[in-house]
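Researcher: Structure for this, please.
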Amino acid sequence: MAHSVKLKAGDTFPKIEATLLDGSVVTLGKPQEQGVWQAVFVYRGKHCPLCTKYLNEIESYKQAFLDAGVEVLAVSADSKQQLQEHVTQLDVSFPIAYGLSEQQMKELGVYISVPRSEQETDHNFSEPGLFVVNENGELHVVDLSNNPFIRPELGALTRGLAWIRDPNNHYPIRGTLDY
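Model: Predicted structure, token format:
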């Protein structure tokens, strides 16, 4: 069985682009403001009610992320039409991109699932992943799940990121020892 490659803490985040509904292209992990970090939330897609709930919950923590100097971006393998339909169920002000290819999902090292039926969705999709990329383009925090039920608790995440980003704490990237 072939093994997927998982990004490791401290790795340079790969250059992966996706598209916003307005047609503009975003580079994952590359914040719009200099010196700011970016939290890239990879989600399953429109078909997942837990994703809808989590994306709306991220919105309620958006200010806490910004206070910690971390921009938020979400992305899935959905099509433009699927995202257009999904945003009607979302109340978010952060950018959401679509069109993540299977090759890009493999580059990110996320778990990939096959739809159970055509009713679920019409393409293979990513399970949840979070990549927090620092100002040097390095992966500072990574969290991968193989199912929709396990995702970072956003209160703990935003408090932790604020602590990591506090220059008085000198907190390094953790988990970098190769074995």
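Researcher: Any notable elements?
Model: The chain has one domain: 37-165. The helical segments are 49-60, 62-67, 80-86, 102-108, 154-165.
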